[in-house]
Amino acid sequence: MFAHTGGYVINSMRLEYLVTVPEYREMQAHMQKLEDAGLWRNIARIVTDRFYETYKQGFTTVFQKL
User: Fold this and answer.
1) 39 φ, ψ (degrees, to nearest 5)
2) Please, which residues have CB within 8 angstroms of residue 60's CB and are 6 or more apart in sequence?
């Protein structure tokens, strides 16, 4: 899956995509499964106001490969 231990995976997108885009609806559950399996650890989950234009929220996750 990932080549290097200690590397980081950063994902940033509009928060609404987690419910409006069918391919992303299970993304949080998938990220949790990878964490539960010990493949990476969560460093940050950040919700940002005014991420897109002046009214859309953003969602950023940071994981570190174990």
Assistant:
1) -85, -30
2) 10, 11, 12, 13, 44, 45, 46, 48
E strand residue ranges, 1-39: 8-14
Write down the pTM of the prediction. 0.83
Q: Where are the domains of the chain?
A: 8-65
Tell me, what amino acid is at 49?
Answer: D
Decide: 43 and 64 in contact? Cβ < 8 Å.
yes
pLDDT profile of the chain (66 residues), mean per 10: 79 95 95 96 96 91 96
